[in-house]
């Protein structure tokens, strides 16, 4: 029987959280293996807007998104189902960059730092005597002191671990497309329609990202995506104009189903969960990418302390990660859930918008409830 390869840290999932962990840990000389089922580059269903709060941390990782075409964004626009519009300045600002580009940039930086990236799928995880034993679909075996779960919104590993949220129905569907058209480069817009909302913002190469989320029960009443858009999405006049006056760059829109916003645990079966695997904020809040990146910073700093201290305990590592994760994100998630719940009721949403149009200074205050301050290094 072949002896398993050993690593200091093994990361399952190569999205933003997984890649940032790989860069951070390998930067300090740790032997890191990241296992990702897909290759790079790859498009993903994602809003592709990132709050500027992560820029200090990305600089620490030696990654400057503006070197790769990221677009600066400082204006926000919101419309409700009755086509009323309100605009405001973003309190901190952000930038737009596609996952196609950003994930590939981060993967190259991880490899440059001597992290190993393996295209494979983890099928089994065992934890015995303070060591993880990992098996993959391609019959490869590994051991590691630490395993980071960064496998996204919903994974077969979630099912295997019988995580609480996976037992509940996930009623949301996400759809994304890139287009060419006219849209202010410094603007991110959120347009509501019955049963959902669509984010619009620019990414690199003069490309516009259109990404919407809807309740699956609303979607299944129609024959296909085109039919749904024509009869539901386009009731919002801003979205109708955006879709009809632009040129699609994908042959078919990308979609993802069974999106869950249920509460998750930041540590599960001794795995340190990062990004969407630890908790997912409603896309309405536009801060999921920033949270994924910041969760990697929290995890990596604690893991480095644990690996470098012979007297460190796993129990302390796990408790401290849960504490810091909750401190950074628990309020944001609650605020995001509450805001999304209000906007699901279009009558309430329209009433709120009337208030915000009269008191526009409240918009930055609301946005700040789901965003953080620039990350301290």
Offer a quick outline of the entry.
It is built from 11 helices and 17 strands.
Search tags:
377 residues; alpha/beta; nine-stranded mixed beta sheet; 17 strands
Spans of at least 5 consecutive residues whose pLDDT stays below 50 are none
Kindly state the number of beta strands: 17
CATH architecture: 3-Layer(bba) Sandwich
Structural class of the secondary structure composition?
alpha/beta
Sheet with the most strands? Answer: 9 strands, mixed
Mean pLDDT: 90
Helical fraction: 25-40%
Describe the structure.
- By secondary structure, the chain is an alpha/beta fold.
- The chain has a single domain (about 5-370), classed as FAD/NAD(P)-binding domain.
- It is built from eleven helices and 17 strands.
- The chain has helices at about 15-25, 55-60, 100-110, 155-160, 215-220, 225-230, 235-245, 290-310, 315-345, 345-360, 360-370, and strands at about 5-10, 30-35, 50, 70-80, 85-95, 115-120, 120-130, 130-135, 140-150, 170-180, 185-195, 195-205, 205-215, 245-250, 255-260, 265-270, 270-275.
- Strands 3, 4, 5, 10, 11, 12, 13, 14 and 15 form a nine-stranded mixed beta sheet that branches. Strands 1, 2, 6, 7, 8, 9, 16 and 17 form an eight-stranded mixed beta sheet that branches.
- α1 (about 15-25) runs parallel beside α3.
- The longest helix has about 30 residues, at about 315-345.
- It is globular.
């Amino acid at each position: 029987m072949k002896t398993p390869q050993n690593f200091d840290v093994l990361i399952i999932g190569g999205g933003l959280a997984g890649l940032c962990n790989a860069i951070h840990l390998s930067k300090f000389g740790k032997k890191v293996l990241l296992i990702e089922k897909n290759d790079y580059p790859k498009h993903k269903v994602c809003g592709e807007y990132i709050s500027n709060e992560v820029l200090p941390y990305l600089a620490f990782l030696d990654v400057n998104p503006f070197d790769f075409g990221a677009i600066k964004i400082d204006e926000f626009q919101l419309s409700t189902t009755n086509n009323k519009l309100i605009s405001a300045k973003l309190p901190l600002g952000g930038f737009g960059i596609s996952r196609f580009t950003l994930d590939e940039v981060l993967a190259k930086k991880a490899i440059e730092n001597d992290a190993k990236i393996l295209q494979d799928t983890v099928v089994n995880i065992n934890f015995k005597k303070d060591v993880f034993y990992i098996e993959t679909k391609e019959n490869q075996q590994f051991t590691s002191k630490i395993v980071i779960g960064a496998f996204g919104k919903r994974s077969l590993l979630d099912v295997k671990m019988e995580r609480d949220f996976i037992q509940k129905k996930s009623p949301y569907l996400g759809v994304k497309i890139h287009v060419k058209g006219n849209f202010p480069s410094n603007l991110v817009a959120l347009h509501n329609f019955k049963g959902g909302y669509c984010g619009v913002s620019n990414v690199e190469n003069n490309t516009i990202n259109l990404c919407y989320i809807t309740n699956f029960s609303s979607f299944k009443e129609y024959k296909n995506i085109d039919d749904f858009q024509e009869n539901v999405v386009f009731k919002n006049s801003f979205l109708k104009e955006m879709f009809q006056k632009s040129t699609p760059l994908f042959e078919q829109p990308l979609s993802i189903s069974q999106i869950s916003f249920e509460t998750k645990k930041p540590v599960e079966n001794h795995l340190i969960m990062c990004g969407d695997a630890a908790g997912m904020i409603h896309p309405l809040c536009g801060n999921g990418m920033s949270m994924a990146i910041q969760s990697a910073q929290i995890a990596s700093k604690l893991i480095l302390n644990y690996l470098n201290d012979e007297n460190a305990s796993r129990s302390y590592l796990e408790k401290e990660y849960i504490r810091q994760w909750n401190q950074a994100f628990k309020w944001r998630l609650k605020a995001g859930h509450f805001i999304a719940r209000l906007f699901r009721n279009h009558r309430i949403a329209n009433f709120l918008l009337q208030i915000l149009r009269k008191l526009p200074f409240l918009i930055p205050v609301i946005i700040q409830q789901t965003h953080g301050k620039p990350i301290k290094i």
